[in-house]
Structures are given as structure tokens and as C-alpha cells.
Target: NAD(P)H dehydrogenase (Quinone)
Amino acid sequence: MSTRILVLYYSRHGSTQALARQIARGINSVSDCEALLRTVPDIPPSTEQHSDPYLTLDELKDCDGLAMGSPVWFGNMAAPLKHFWDTTTPLWVSGALIDRPACVFASSSSLHGGQESTLQSMQLPLLHHGMLIVGIPYSEPALHTTQTGGTPYGASHLSGTPGQMSQEEKTLAQQLGCRLATLSARLKNYQCD
Model:
């Protein structure tokens, strides 16, 4: 059975979705690992079609790892994503996500628009669920050269030009996905005595 890793994101203009797809490429590069791209509905609900299905609590409960991404909204995650996490109390009560690896990613329209504070705030519900946070270590060379996005807290993207992503941003996102997949596969069958 393959290791199933959710790539959950909310994207209004496509930049966070593009970053999610790079994370998924990194996940899929690891043998026997599968990325499942999912999103959350708008608030208020809209009739706009999304290219990926909405995440269900059952899918979240059954995942082996999670990558979560959001656009930067005033230094925090987008409201639709926060709203989704506010519905996960049953999983928190049961401990369903304890010891599952997770990482975060974000996109912003300005370099100092709050990428790092958004990444850190997105980690809070994951920590409350007992998940294990995966970041990008400084052993990754692109972390030293990027001038647009990418932090030790997670992958990020400066969305100055729609549809454009720097090579460093792509590399960091793919490496984060690869690292998440590798750790998820290793921990999938591990149990404490």
C-alpha cells in the first residue's frame, strides 16, 4: 500500500495552487508515495469551480502525512483554511493525527508580506493535533540563494508575476515535498512500545 500524503491548500488567484503542485511533484518523486491534492471551499461559498476536490475529514484522518498551504492574508492563513481546521475537533479528540509528519507553505504578493508569520501560524493547529513539523534545513543549497521565497519554516513563493515561479522556489518546494514523503513513509508503520 502506498504512502498517501495530502497536499491541502487554499488559493484565490492560483499562486498557492502552483506551489502545491511543486510540493506534490516532490512527494511523487519518492518511491511508493502518492500526493493527493485537495482544497477547501470559499467563505462564503461560491459557485466558482476548483480544479481539485474539497478535503473531507475522513481523508485527513487516513493520510500518512500532510502539506498545508495558504496565501498570506495579513500575516496569517486564509480564513477558509482556518475555518476548515475549526471543524477538525473530532480528529483532535480521537488523536487521529498524532505523530503524522506535516509541513506548511505559503505565497504572498510582496516579499515582506508576512510569509514567515503565516507559515508559523499555520503550524499551530498541526501542533495541537500532535503532528510532527517538517521544515527545510539549511543543508538545502537553494535556501541560501533564494531572493524571493523559501524559509526554514516551509516553502514560499513571491507571486509578483502570475504563473511565474523562480527556480529556487520550485526546488525548495519539491525538496520539502520529498522530505515530507520520505519521513511519512518511514513513520507509517512505526509504533511505540
